[in-house]
Amino acid sequence: MLTVKDQLTNQFIAPHERDQMVPCLSAARQMLDHHTCPGSEFTGWLDLPVSMRESTIEQIEETAERIRRETDVLIVVGIGGSYLGARAVIEALSHHFSSLLSDEKRKHPLILFAGHQISPDYLHDLLDIVKGKRIALNVISKSGTTTEPAIAFRILRHRLFGDLRPEELADRVIVTTDEKRGALRAFAADNGLTTFVIPDDIGGRYSVLTPVGLLPIAVAGVDIRALLAGASSEREHSAAPLSEGWAASDLYAVNRMLLLKKGYAAEILASYEPSMRYFAEWWKQLFGESEGKDGKGLITMSVDYTTDLHSLGQLIQEGPRAFFETVIDFQSVCHDLRIPHDESDLDQLEYLAGRPMSFVSRQAMNGTALAHVAGGVPNMRIEIESRSAYHLGELIYFFERACALSGIMNGVNPFDQPGVEAYKRNMFALLGKPGYENLRDELVAVSGDE
Ligand code: PA5
């Protein structure tokens, strides 16, 4: 079971401060669980691990199986909430050098991502690498009109499948979008494509356990039933009455709020497993987009340890005292290695001979946390058993719930993202999209660029 260890916040948070948060936490839980909080129309993710229909899971598994059988490469096209969850789970659970493995050894299609930026060089290189391969595209967009994936989808479709007959296209393109609305829904209907639904009551950054994440994740060979089972178990634990004790997500959310009130501006998510890098990217969006509004919220940052101890370690240890740290701590590794004896001992490592690398990593984690606390950086640890589908499911649900509770306690709507529109409006105006002429004139006057 996932737990939050917060002994290393004791010198920063007094027990009575936590106790005094009970009414606020209790109110937030009630609003969330009774779907009465701001943005409650987007709380479908709360029950998702148990409410997802068996037929949907089967359809995802069957489609994934077909893609695995018939293709060498799956290109997943999407951005933000329609991208990060799938990538987070796939990278967390795949071989570190998956893209370099032979098709035979990898046992599933190579999974590549597109539409998460507007770099022509990236798309050019992607087209280059997939030449001669059997390709499938999974285009994911709730609105169907988000510029980045729409451009990538149009270019990839034309370049890869321009010559295909409609029935051949139907074998290659899978659309994940809104049930009724949107440009992609119409495109899928016109072309007879396989489609998956992004539920109306689930926003992008909470959608990893819908077909948005589950289809690409299943293609990558991850057991999606185990992922959902882990999420379901965490759902059960976290919704138990407060009178039975605080759930891990309660403790984490309250500690974050208390530290924010004390003036800590940023939270750093740390992991000692490099495959968790995209999980941290997913976490940054989840918390950043949910809480960062109305002039409030914690700034979300992430680090890969011990790599970043040799780049950002100095700043974290002695720079401005503006952040606290949350460490993802896997209790076991998948494949341990022992440090061999070497009589010459030129590297002065003989005192560690025979020790597993995981032991060294654990002591690095302990030593770093203690050093950072001594340097004024509060430290929390999220303990999970292993880097497996089940436990990642637990972790996903834990973060989603803690994020919603934090946002509600901090007085924001954790399920909207009005600020994301600002850059889009300017971009449309500067691109000359019809309807944005006045804004274009204003922007040109400000920037001086034509
Ligand atoms: O979390 C969100 O809502 C956003 O990150 C969206 O997922 C992102 O902007 C992509 O939107 P869409 O799925 O409509 O293409």
Describe what this molecule looks like in 3D.
The protein is α/β, with parallel strands linked by helices and 450 residues long. It folds into two domains: 3-36 and 228-409, Rossmann fold (3-Layer(aba) Sandwich), CATH 3.40.50.10490; 45-222, 3-Layer(aba) Sandwich (Rossmann fold), CATH 3.40.50. Helices cover 47% and strands 12% of the residues. It is built from 19 helices and ten strands. A five-stranded mixed sheet has the order 1-10-9-7-8, sandwiched between helices. Helix 12 (224-238) crosses helix 17 and helix 13 (248-261) crosses helix 17 (389-409). The longest helix is centred in the last third of the chain and has 21 residues, at 389-409. The mean pLDDT is 95. 5-phosphoarabinonic acid binds at residues 79-82, 141-143, 146, 149, 203-205, 289, 417.
* CATH top-level class of the largest domain: Alpha Beta
Task: Quote the beta fraction.
Answer: 5-15%
Q: Treating each run of at least 4 consecutive H or I residues as one helix, how many helices?
A: 19
Number of domains: 2
- CATH architecture descriptor name of the largest domain: 3-Layer(aba) Sandwich
**What name goes with the CATH superfamily of the largest domain?**
Glucose-6-phosphate isomerase like protein, domain 1
Uncertain segments of ≥5 residues (pLDDT<50)? none
Q: How many angstroms separate the termini? A: 58 Å
Q: Looking across the biggest beta sheet, what order are the strands in?
A: 1-10-9-7-8
Overall geometric form:
globular
Order of helices and strands: EHHHHEHHEHEHHEHEHHHEHEHEHEHHH
